[in-house]
Design a protein that fits this description.
By secondary structure, the chain is mainly alpha-helical. The protein has one domain. The chain has 4 helices and no strands.
Length: 59
Amino acid sequence: MGIVAWVLLIYTKMTIPVLLLFVLLLGSATGFGAQAFYGLWASELFPTKYLARAQGIMF
């Protein structure tokens, strides 16, 4: 589903229905876990000194 979502986004005209379908397909393919949120956003938002604590709180 993830590959189909990206192919759809890359090779079709970018319209609102295509973008919504992309979000739905990619969201379904990646699952419902929170790792993407605490793993990515913690490293982007917090300095290294506080990273482990911030990830632990978000988890």
